[in-house]
Amino acid sequence: MKFLDLVKARYSVRDYMDKAIEPEKMDYIMECVRLAPSAVNFQPWKFAIVTDKKTLAAVKTAYQREWIQNAPCVIVACSNHDESWHRKSDGKDHTDIDIAIAVEHLCLAATEQGLGTCWVCNFDVPVIRKVLNLPDNLEPAVLIPIGYTNKAEVAEKKRKATEEIMLL
Ligand SMILES: Cc1cc2nc3c(=O)[nH]c(=O)nc-3n(C[C@H](O)[C@H](O)[C@H](O)COP(=O)(O)O)c2cc1C
Fold first, then answer.
1. Engineering a disulfide at 10: which of 15, 31, 79, 111 sits with its beta carbon 3.0 to 4.6 angstroms away?
2. Which phi and psi (to 5°) does residue 139 adopt?
3. pTM for the complete prediction?
């Protein structure tokens, strides 16, 4: 697939089929995640692939929306603040940038494999911390429900025009 076509094909899927993801597809997607770039190549991330029914149900209590209920898997992307790069000039922690690149690799790779995803950041952090028993240095940053969808139509992309986002 041409990269632009892949970018256009990815959208926030909020309608999942209760159908398991083939292990080879998940391996492929996670390889795309693993190869993501990061500041100073520190790779300050950890991922939990949650498919076990009990843990999955517990993870979903952190984001109580009807549409997530059928998702057969939720990947929890965690920032590792012990390993992140802080810029010397102002101390800026680059973990959020690093994790965002890895998560978007995940979403684009999933799209290419015929799977839907949705970024979810509006979740209850303490709930995820407790369910996954996360140590203090790991911050759950993004939940990514992933799975097949019945929805064939991709909604039209609503985005600012190029002129609106250009400074120079
Ligand atoms: C950092 C980030 C956080 C997001 N958090 C949520 C969320 O908590 N719940 C949700 O339904 N969508 C969430 N989204 C999805 C956005 O609403 C969606 O990407 C945006 O509206 C553009 O639509 P599209 O993904 O279909 O192109 C998030 C997206 C990003 C990038």
1. 111
2. -105, 120
3. 0.97
